[in-house]
Amino acid sequence: MLRYEEADGSGEWWPRSARAKLLSPVSVAGAADGRLFVLDSLLKKVFILDREGNIQGELEGDPQGLGQPAGVTVSGQRVYVSDVKNHRIAIYGLEGTFLQSFGRRGAGPGEFNFPTYLWHDKSSSQLWVCDSGNFRFQWFDHDGRFIGEMGENGNRPGYLARPRGIARDSEGHVYAADAAFDAFQIFDKSSKFLLFIGRAGSRPGEFSMPGGIFIDERDRVYVADTQNGRVQVFQFIKEAKP
């Protein structure tokens, strides 16, 4: 993994102590106490790292086992992991103990078809899941109870083709990355399409298979431009009030 300093843009490989054990870290989430949960897709495990980057343990105890973990996020005292192969979400405690899972293969509410990216909405404490094979995003309460969904398959703006990461800005707009469109889209609170940003390419504002997306407290939008090997940063500008 790479860790960057916001002040000067410098970066370093981190954590050095765990590099020998991590083979393919693809998703990471942080807890309030500074611990990190790092998902390794090749090892099919989620490791627990302390503030210095030392491996302290791993998520365990799931009787079914993680078939193919893809995404991880933390909400309060719980860690959520998407299991692509088993079409479900597994829930663990912060100490790594398995608690429960929810979901099964299907297209109905609360069912999944290859769930991948996860996102915890701090404003509502809801868990959002990229249900990639059903071309939609679903959201749930902290126990996995279905609340709502958005999206449908299509090949033009406002639809989803290969949905990936998702996030929300301070005004409630939903941002969804789509690897097929080489872009990200913005929807309002009621899931109405607003804006399409990006196209295929390697110039600023262009993408090649964008994946994860993150919005910080200052409404800066970070998009993982996967095949271009970079992260692009955008600024959401609030509408001026009269």
Secondary structure topology:
Elements: E1 2-4, E2 11-13, E3 25-30, E4 36-40, E5 45-49, E6 55-58, E7 69-75, E8 78-83, E9 88-93, E10 98-102, E11 115-121, E12 126-131, E13 136-140, E14 146-150, E15 163-168, E16 174-178, E17 183-187, E18 193-197, E19 210-215, E20 220-225, E21 230-235
Antiparallel strand pairs: 1-2, 3-4, 4-5, 5-6, 7-8, 8-9, 9-10, 11-12, 12-13, 13-14, 15-16, 16-17, 17-18, 19-20, 20-21
> How many E-type strands?
21
Number of helices: 0
Query: Radius of gyration over alpha carbons?
Result: 17 Å
Q: Estimate the global geometry from the Cα principal axes.
A: globular
Strand order of the largest sheet: 3-4-5-6
- In whole angstroms, the N-to-C terminal distance is 45 Å
Brief overview, please?
The chain is mainly β and 242 residues long. Helix content is 0%, strand content 46%.
Protein model, in words:
This protein is an all-beta fold and about 240 residues long. It folds into 2 domains: about 25-150, TolB, C-terminal domain (Neuraminidase); about 165-240, Beta Barrel (Thrombin, subunit H). It has strands at about 1-5, 10-15, 25-30, 35-40, 45-50, 55-60, 70-75, 80-85, 90-95, 100, 115-120, 125-130, 135-140, 145-150, 165-170, 175-180, 185, 195, 210-215, 220-225, 230-235. The strands form 6 sheets. A 4-stranded antiparallel β-sheet has the order 3-4-5-6, with no helix packed on it. A 4-stranded antiparallel β-sheet has the order 7-8-9-10, with no helix packed on it. The radius of gyration is 17 Å and the shape is globular.
